[in-house]
Amino acid sequence: MTSAAVTPPSALSNGSLDTDEPVLSTVFVTGNYLEERTGEIRSRGTPWESYHKAQLITETEQGLLRCYQRDTQENNDRYAALFISLLQKIVRTEPIQHILVLIDDMLNDDAGRVQLYLNLAKTNADLPYGPLLKWLDKDDEYISAKTAKILTLLICSAGRVPPQDFSALLDWLVKQLYNVRVKAAADLAAQLLSSLLHVHELRAQFYQTPRGMSAVMDALKRNKDNPQMQYQLISCIWLLSFEVEIAEDIDHTHGVISVLIEIAKHAIKEKVIRVSVATFRNLVEKALPFNLSSMLVHRLLPFCEQLLNRKFQDTDILEDVQVVRDQLQVEFQNISSFEVYVTELESGRLDWTPVHLSEHFWQQNVQRFNENDYALLKLLAQQLASATGSTELAVAAHDIGQYVKHCPQGKRILQDIGAKQRIMELMAHENPDVRYQALVAVQSLMVHAW
C-alpha cells in the first residue's frame, strides 16, 4: 500500500542522479506502517458532536468540520486554519489522531492544498509548523509518525527553510533510524530524511545533529539484505555530499567510502550502485584531497575499472564511474609508491597491495623506516600488535620480514619495540598465512647474530 507524500532522491527533474543539485517533485512514501492505523481511525468515524459536548471544540468548529466532511474537495483556507488551530488547543490522543488524518488526506487529495497551510504564516509566523512540532515527542507512535510525515511534506514544498527550529524533527528521525523493534518506523524515517535533505539548509543541521550520521551508518550496516533501505540511506549520504564541508569530513569521521564500496560490490539493484557511485563522484569533485587516501587504501580505482566492464541499463552509472576513474588515475599517477605505503599504513587497513611485494620498493625505501626515531617502524609494530584481521596481521608480519631482510641492523630496535616477541607469537596463529609470514620474518631475524 502507498500514500502520497514526499520526494526521494530518485525523483529528479531529469530522472537521473548527477552532480547538479537535485530537484524535488512529488511522489509517494511507500509502506503500510501508517496506512493500517489510518484505516482503523477512519473506520471508527469521527465523533465531532461528542468532542463538542466534551468542550474540546466549539460549535463553530464543529460546523466547519461537518461542512468539510460533506465536501472534502473544497479548497478553502478556513479548513487549513481550523485543523492547525485544533492541534494547538486539543490535548487528547484520539481527536489529534483524527485531525492528523484529515490534514494528511487533504494534502494527499490535492498537492496544491499545501499552499493553504503555508499561507497561514502570513498571519502568524509560527504557523503551520509550530503546532505540529509539539506533537513529535508524544508517546503515541502513530501521532508522532503522522506528524513527521506532514511536516516533511510542508517543509519540502515550501521552497525555502522557514524560521522555525526543526531539530525536534531531525531528532525524531534519528531515533527512528535506531528503531530495531519496529523496522517499518526506520524505513519511514529513511524515506522522510532522504526527502528533507533535498533542502539545502537542512543538510548541515542534520550533519550536526547528535548521532545523526551514526544512525544512518548503523541502519545501513543493519540492512545488508534490504536493497530499498540501502538505496534510501545512501541517497541521504549522496545528498549530504553536495555540501563541501560535509564532503571534506564525512569519510574521515564516518568511513563512508569503504562501506559504500562493499555495498556496491554486492548490490543486486542497479539503483544502489548508481547512488553509491554518484556519492563517490561528489566526494571526488568537491573534496578530493580529503578523500584521496581513503579511496586509495580501499581500492576504489580497481573497483571503478571492474564497473566499466559491466553492462548497466542505466547509462548514467558508467558516466559517473568514468569521471571518478579518470580523476583517480590522474591523482594516483602523481603519488609515489612510498606515499602509497604510508597512506595505507596510517589508515590501519593493511592489504596485499603491490607495494608490499615489490623488491624495488624495499630496496629504495627501507632506510626511511628509521627516520624520525623509527616512526614508521613503530607504527608497523603497532599494527602488528593491535590488528585482529588475518590479512592485516599477515601483511604486517611480511613487512617486518622485509625490513629485517633489507636493514639487518634494525633488528635491535624491533626487539626494543616489542615486534620480535609479537612475531614469535604469531607463529602459532590459527591462520596459515599469518603463521607462514611470521615464520619467514623469524628466519630473517635469525640469519645474523644479534
Automatic annotation (TrEMBL):
InterPro entries to which the protein is assigned, alphabetical: ARM-like, ARM-type_fold, ATPase_V1-cplx_hsu, ATPase_V1-cplx_hsu_C, ATPase_V1-cplx_hsu_C_sf
Annotated keywords: Hydrogen ion transport, Ion transport, Transport
Residue intervals of the ATPase V1 complex subunit H C-terminal domain: 335-450
Gene3D superfamilies given in the database record: Leucine-rich Repeat Variant, V-type ATPase, subunit H, C-terminal domain
GO MF term list: proton-transporting ATPase activity, rotational mechanism
Quaternary assembly: V-ATPase is a heteromultimeric enzyme made up of two complexes: the ATP-hydrolytic V1 complex and the proton translocation V0 complex.
The protein's name: V-type proton ATPase subunit H
Species whose genome carries this gene: Thamnocephalis sphaerospora
